[in-house]
Amino acid sequence: MDPQTTLNDLFDAIEQRDWERVRELSDALLGWMERGGFPPEVAGPGTLGKHWHKTMATFVCHAAVARANEAARRRQKGGTDAAH
Predict the structure, then answer these.
(1) What's this model's pTM, rounded to 2 decimal places?
(2) pLDDT tens per residue, range 38-62
(3) Upper half-sphere CA count for residue 66 (Cβ side, 13 Å)
(4) Which H or E element spans position 22?
(5) N or C end of the chain: which has fewer CB within 10 A?
(6) CA distance 10 to 63
(7) Which of 6, 23, 22 is nearest to 14 (CA)?
(8) Taking residues 20-27, what's their average pLDDT?
């Protein structure tokens, strides 16, 4: 797995409002890091260290899933936050 590519794909999926893909990519990246894989560089230089980037990547994944869940609730209520 390339965590940097996965993170970039996650940002693209969020922008496209492809909430199923958001969940898949978030789960994949979280699983990768939980198994000891290195994190992507999310915010700030690489010199901030692995722990910093893992914490930031974990936050991004959880925030993305929360956004996907919010969109699903809107769809259930007849809102307009659907995937393409």
Answers:
(1) 0.87
(2) 999 998 888 999 999 999 999 999 9
(3) 6
(4) helix 19-34
(5) C
(6) 11
(7) 22
(8) 98
Q: What burial letters (b/e) apply to 63-83, b meaning 16+ CB within 10 Å? A: ebbebbeebbeeeeeeeeeee
- In angstroms, rounded to a whole number, what is the distance separating the alpha carbons of residues 18 and 24? 10
Instruction: Please state, in angstroms and rounded to a whole number, the distance separating the CA atoms of residues 76 and 4.
Output: 33
- CA-based nearest residue to 27, from 15, 10, 44: 10
pLDDT score at 66 = 97
- What is residue 41's three-state secondary structure? coil
Residue 46 to residue 55: CA distance in whole angstroms: 13
What CA–CA distance (Å, rounded) separates 34 from 72? 26
Helix, strand, or coil here: 44? Answer: coil
Tokens of 70: 């919010």
